[in-house]
Amino acid sequence: MSTHALKTAVQFINKKESLVVDALDGLLRGSGGANLARLDGYPGIKVILRSDHKPNKNVAVICGGGSGHEPAHAGFVGKGLLTAAVCGEVFASPSIDAVFAAIMAVTGKAGCLVIFKNYTGDRLNFGLAVERARALGKKAEVVIVKDDIALPDIPQPRGIAGVLF
Q1: 138 phi, psi to nearest 5 deg
Q2: What pLDDT is recorded for position 165?
């Protein structure tokens, strides 16, 4: 029997500064031809989208939020699921510019549905991006997910579980 103590891995990251970009790059490389792409502006604008989406035929479904619980949200981009995912830094909402870029990239005549959680930053950034897109004539509807099964009776339910179900 060895007298050396086993070390437990606490983190599986290269560098904190590139954690989100590394995770998204890994998702793209490991997607096996799933028709995924990243939006121009990457890595500053962290948007993963379907490269086979037909914006004038199909309603785009966009979701996003802070990173840190991967594969959410980018792991759900694909046929029958999300059209695009907008990723913020770890536990931080994506910027208004990133959300707006995603909306503009995948929204055509059919419009888009933008889904986000009941976090203050998400409500502000996604909401303002949707308003900007609407001002330019894009059809965009919003769903704010507010259920919370993690904590009972909190004043601002956040909607983590409801985004998936």
Answers
A1: -80, 140
A2: 55
Please report whether residue 107 resides in a domain. Answer: yes
DSSP 8: P
Contact predicate 154/148, CB 8 Å: yes
Per the domain annotation, does 11 fall within a domain?
no
Cα distance between residue 98 and residue 103, in whole Å: 9
Cα–Cα distance for residue pair 42/45, rounded to 1 Å: 5
Residues 94, 142: Cα–Cα separation, whole Å? 16
* pLDDT tens profile 41-92: 977 899 999 999 999 999 999 999 998 877 789 999 999 999 999 999 998 9
Q: Looking at the domain assignment, is residue 1 inside a domain?
A: no
* Residue positions counted in the chain: 165
Give the pTM. Answer: 0.87
Give CA 46 to chain center in angstroms: 8
Please, which pLDDT band fits residue 148 given cuts at 50, 70 and 90? low
Amino acid at position 152, single letter: P
Strand ranges across the sheet with 60-67: 36-38, 47-50, 84-90, 60-67, 112-117, 140-145
Pairing outcome for strands 112-117 and 60-67: parallel
Residue 50: give its domain's CATH number: 3.40.50.10440
